[in-house]
Protein 1
Amino acid sequence: METLSERLAAVRERISCALRKAGRAEDSARLVAVSKTFPAEAVASAREAGQFLFGENRVQELATKVPVLPQDIEWHLIGHLQANKVRAAVNLATWIHSVDTADLLRRIVRIAEEENRTPRLLLEVNVSGEASKFGMRADEVEATVSACPTPLLCGLMTVAPAEATVAELHQVFASLRKLRDSVAAATGHPLPELSMGMSGDFEIALAEGATIVRIGSAIFGHRDYPAGAPG
Ligand SMILES: *Cc1c(COP(=O)(O)O)cnc(C)c1O
């Protein structure tokens, strides 16, 4: 049985390898270690192994971990955010990947200003159009950026369908990249970040231009409840 630090090193090596294969610079993608459902001790071990970026999908779980872990950790909220938890989220997270409506974007921007915080924000896009998924439609992204061109907004995020083939995964990730290119061109708003790729598909996402991969089970091990559980 590998240790957490061995699994983390193996994931880092696979990321480097995928970037090299794609002709990309070694430092052109960030690894967010997704620690949802795992105890603070597991985060502390990964932090000791040199991992500083962690992702959680529920504000409540984030709120229990942040105060008991080192201050130098950068927290990423990656799960659906309810309107009544925005204030807590902007005070706990440095990044919010799951901005899935124009209303939520405006609300986060207003509350971040009140709280004197500058979270980096990504619009979550439901590229494949699955009914069960959070995220705005691809055709809503340009209007959302135009209506609220905040400097906090720095890119797009997607979750690929769990059952997709390799060819379909390439297509989903390439679609997010092309959507980013076209929205950035149309609005003049730079959107350099593409948050895409999880344990099962991150190498494909890196080949298609991911700048942030969100990896949980390949680092922390198997989880007993579903990846997309809202919170
Ligand atoms: C849980 C989760 C991940 C990580 O999933 P793994 O398959 O464990 O790597 C990534 N992104 C989101 C939005 C998640 O909810």
Protein 2
Amino acid sequence: MRTASRIEHLPPYLFAEIDRKKAEKVAQGIDVISLGIGDPDTPTPDHIVDAMAEAIRNPANHQYPSYYGAKRYRDAASQWMKNRFGVDVDPDDETVALIGSKEGLAHIFLAFVDPGDYTLVPGCGYPVYHTGGILAGGKSHFMPMTEENNFLADFESTPPEILAKAKMMFLSYPNNPTSAIATPEYFDKAIAFAKKHDLLLIHDNAYCEIGFDGYEPISLMERPGAKEVAIELFSCSKAYNMTGWRVAFAVGNAMAIKALGTVKSNIDSGVFTAVQDAAIQALLGPQDSVHELVEMYQHRRDLVIDGLTKIGLKAHPCKGTIFVWVKVPDGYGSAEFATKVLEEANVIIAPGNAYGPSGEGYIRISLATPDDRLIEALGRIESTL
Ligand SMILES: *Cc1c(COP(=O)(O)O)cnc(C)c1O
């Protein structure tokens, strides 16, 4: 048998070598600390788990879910957008449930990208913005992200011949992997740019609940004209420690939401309705757990940035997300430094270039790691320098 060429066109999995080395070490009984994974280490809050325990006993929840999300879930998502950002989105025409935002990010390509079409993709970002395009036969243009422009993807520099064939543009702030945040003015420019070049703008707002030092991330939907050109994805994964539950939603431009819903209705059959009931509790129930989570990550951020500064490594200022973005010492590439740290210190860090070309020269440290393990890992990294 022969696989489709789209499988061969996927980039090599940059963690393959790291995974192999890790497995070797673990087999030898070595204690490997992973700062590589962006998966919350603390459990889903009790009130959400309790809502699920009740919802799972409701026989109506045992049947096929709605393709687009239960009416009560879309109502809750719309209400949450109102509570959190003061934004009005229609729960019927401007909201769709997702089986995690990754699902929506991958499927949006099938709704908008024909073979050969371009997507403007952040120079470093969540890998699906690029691989989702490849699987749909599309092409990526990586928008440069540099420290000098605060890691705000530079869409203005896109060559006209690429723009002529571009259909979509992805942005995501607070940003994974750089932890950069966007200004309202940047969002306004992105909206105007998308309008001018007839692009669908997709904002991945996975970290909008994780802001530090009192910073509250905004929604692209708060900005004037957003709904004419954009959709935004929100996920319960990081805000409510629900990565394993697979529940998220997209809101915004009705035509784009409808097109995404059409793709979904032909591929998947929606989110388990009991999970949607639990997510309603997450979105509209008490939000204390979110504040506690933010405090915990902020404390870990301080610990990591202090520790890095003491050993002479420079971190980008971190106002949100669960990541610290760090410049590699002079003379190293991303992969080279990550390999050295794994080999000599038994600590896994993510090489920045795994997230795209703009990530070269950096590594990403995940804050989804208990304090004592972070401290231990920093000590070990110091010993390699
Ligand atoms: C974790 C993450 C997601 C995926 O979220 P799910 O809802 O769990 O699929 C999407 N985007 C970014 C930037 C992420 O870091």
